[in-house]
TrEMBL record:
Superkingdom of origin: Bacteria
Swiss-Prot/TrEMBL cofactor(s): pyridoxal 5'-phosphate
This protein's UniProt keywords: Amino-acid biosynthesis, Cysteine biosynthesis, Pyridoxal phosphate, Transferase
Signal peptide positions on this chain: none
InterPro entries documented for this protein: Cys_synth, Cys_Synth/Cystath_Beta-Synth, CysM, P-phosphate_BS, TrpB-like_PALP, TrpB-like_PALP_sf
GO molecular function: cysteine synthase activity
Pfam (any one): PALP
Top enzyme category: transferase
Protein name in the entry: Cysteine synthase
Length: 298
């Protein structure tokens, strides 16, 4: 019998594609890493499987256990998939303001969903997850403090991009939420070529962009090391959404709002440099945002 892969083996090795129209006349090459092509539809498939597999290898969890995690959406969906693959019970805590598609996807994988108010937000979801863990209700992987999160990108995303660009990458642009993607990729890229510029994106004050955060100091992810990011850009909600819609209509890339922010940041970088190879992370697909109406506007 052939050695057929399982769905777990399909995580990673996502396409890297060149933008054709949005960059305009430029000597730069802008490349988008299509993480929506992962099985559960986002870049978070990588750390979700990494955190579970590494915890299993250390003997910290075993199939049948209950895992608890606070999430704004994509990590929760990815963890729900990974839990279904590996045989775990999954309890996810998230703000009620998350899109209905995200909630439905989590439940489809068999996860139990616990909502906190929009006002409590991700900070409240994280506090509740820790309280449930302390009450003995399950194990928290804690994507915000777990080194197996950036490890997934150090082992996977970074090397893939390095190979796909034949080492010609000059700039890496990524939205910052848990910061796992930018931390892991930065560590890998800087080891290959310290001159590669790492650009992180955060929302402007008052902006609400799913997947991109400005954390209060007390909730700053423990995996985040500021020295690994060369530059941080503030992205407005309007800019992220306008670029997201333009990606669909002018490039045929249907993605979420944080990916729109990443491309907006990459376009800003491109306006400042020449003969550069700029890579950005397209975190997820746009179909999990349809109910929010963000694609209805011109």
């Amino acid at each position: 019998m052939p050695d057929y892969p399982t769905i777990e083996a399909c995580i990673g090795n996502t396409p890297l594609v060149r933008l054709q129209r949005l960059p305009g006349a430029t000597s730069n090459v802008l490349l988008a890493k299509l993480e929506g092509d992962n099985p559960a539809g986002s870049v978070k498939d990588r750390p979700a499987m990494s955190m579970i597999a590494e915890a299993e290898a250390r003997g910290e969890i075993s199939p049948g256990d209950t895992i608890i995690e606070a999430t704004s959406g994509n990590t929760g969906i990815a963890l729900a998939m990974a839990a279904a693959i590996r045989g775990y019970q999954m309890r996810l805590i998230m703000p009620a303001s998350a899109s209905s598609e995200r909630k439905q996807a989590m439940r489809a994988y068999g996860a139990e969903l616990i909502e906190v108010t929009a006002e409590q937000g991700m900070e409240g979801a994280r506090d509740l997850a820790h309280a449930m863990r302390d009450a003995g209700e399950g194990i928290v992987l804690d994507q915000f403090a777990n080194p197996d999160n950036p490890l997934a990108h150090y082992r996977g995303t970074g090397p893939e991009i390095w190979e796909q660009t034949a080492g010609e990458i000059t700039h890496f642009v990524s939205s910052m939420g848990t910061t796992g993607t930018i931390m892991g990729c930065s560590a890998y890229f800087k080891a290959q070529n310290p001159q590669i510029e790492i650009v992180g994106l955060q929302p402007k004050e008052g902006a609400s962009i799913p997947g991109i955060r400005r954390w209060p100091q007390a909730y700053l992810p423990k995996i985040f090391e500021p020295a690994r990011v060369d530059r941080v850009l503030d992205i407005s909600q309007q800019e992220a959404q306008d670029t997201m819609r333009a990606l669909a209509r002018e490039e045929g890339i249907f993605c979420g709002v944080s990916a729109g922010g990443a491309v907006a940041g990459a376009l800003r970088v491109s306006a400042e440099v020449e003969n550069a190879t700029i890579v950005m992370i397209i975190c997820d697909r746009g179909d999990r945002y349809l109910s929010t109406g963000v694609f209805d506007k011109n």
